[in-house]
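User: two proteins, same treatment. go.

Assistant:
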Amino acid sequence: MTTKKDENMSFETALSSLENIVQQLEKGDLPLEQAMALFEQGLALSKTTQQTLQQAEQKIKVLMDKHQDAPLQDFELTQDDQ
């Protein structure tokens, strides 16, 4: 369930929070109820970040459609980017 708090969070903050939750869950030393609560928060943050990325992708597509003289090309990461 995505909350208003999650929706108002910046993408970077949401992603950082999600990474923190994953690290806590991977340790495996949390009580079950706390782990379940964190898991639920993680799902909400995951949904929020996915929606943000989808919105950004749609906006890029709209901008590219307006400026068809700039073709969209695949982006390849270099080792420095990874």
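Protein 2:
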Amino acid sequence: MSKKKIELSTNVEMLIKKYLDLNDLSLDELTNRALKAYLVNHLSSTQVKEALKQADESESSYSNKLFQSNIDDLNKL
């Protein structure tokens, strides 16, 4: 997994700190969940599938199931 460096605004940093204090998540888990939800919401299903297709084929089949699960979760909101 690659590592990326980001700079948080003061407001976002305070919100993250509060959220992490209330929930049992690491910053990595929160970041991955938030980015995934954002990206799935802002890309078409075709774009998501194309991006995931570039990954290993065995991971791709798992990702398609995960993608569908996330779509179902988002539809429940």
